[in-house]
Amino acid sequence: MSPNTAVLIADPVLAIGLLLMGVFIGLTIARVRSRIRRHTWRRREARHWNRGAGSLGSLRQPTAPRVELPPSRPTDSADQLRVVMSADFAIQPLLNKSEGRVLKELERFVEDFNPRWQVMAQVSLGEILSCKDASAYACINSKRVDLLLIDDQFLPRHAIEYQGFGHYQGSAAARDAIKKEALRRAGIGYHEVVAGQTTPSELRRLVERLVIRPLPQIMPGPVPPASQLPQLDQTPSAGSRAPEAD
């Protein structure tokens, strides 16, 4: 018998204490290993579900991204004035360089075909369209057209949209569809000028087709003096009867 065993037999309290300590250490190790296995299993299952694997993977609803709400706009005029007074403003171009070139070409072509028509830039649809449906009007109120042809009565006739090289991004196609449908229902034409495709000659032909030319005005000529008017012969002819005397 070893000396350590003899000591444990001689002191049973020490033996029980060592036994309990061993049990406690064993339980602690088992608990830690169980947590590690559970954590590993959860990570593996999470990757499995995110890949859409398994029969239930396709039913998993994606987590909605957190949306940062914009700060609420003050509705009171005094609050709005206070906010504006505390902010810095700077000017920015109404059109970029490409849109500006299209505007100048349109103005030149419209002037050639009908000087009474005009070209407007960045016009809000809420200013040229009306609708009794408040919800429908709210959908188009803040949308704009790049260029607008108006006639001599200041009525909008045709919208010209300039599609630059980076236009079709995000929801641009959906926004264009909304504008096109609203304009169509109001009887306003919708036409596109595509960067790198529409040539100046094609743009001129488009304007020639859209703009209504003014009717030619017939100016009356100068009235000749009475001395130059042809004189009627008042002498009765030989075969005519003389008026009877009373």
From TrEMBL:
Residue numbers spanned by region Disordered: 52-76, 219-246
Where are stretches of biased composition, namely Polar residues? 228-238
Domain DUF2726 per the UniProt entry, residue ranges: 92-207
One Pfam match, given by its short name, reads: DUF2726
Q: Which residues cross the membrane?
A: 12-32
Q: Does Transmembrane helix count among this protein's keywords?
A: yes
Q: Which UniProt keywords apply?
A: Membrane, Transmembrane, Transmembrane helix
Q: Decide whether keyword Cell wall biogenesis/degradation is in the record.
A: no
Coiled-coil region: none
> In its UniProt entry, what is this protein called?
DUF2726 domain-containing protein
Source species, please?
Answer: Rhodovarius crocodyli
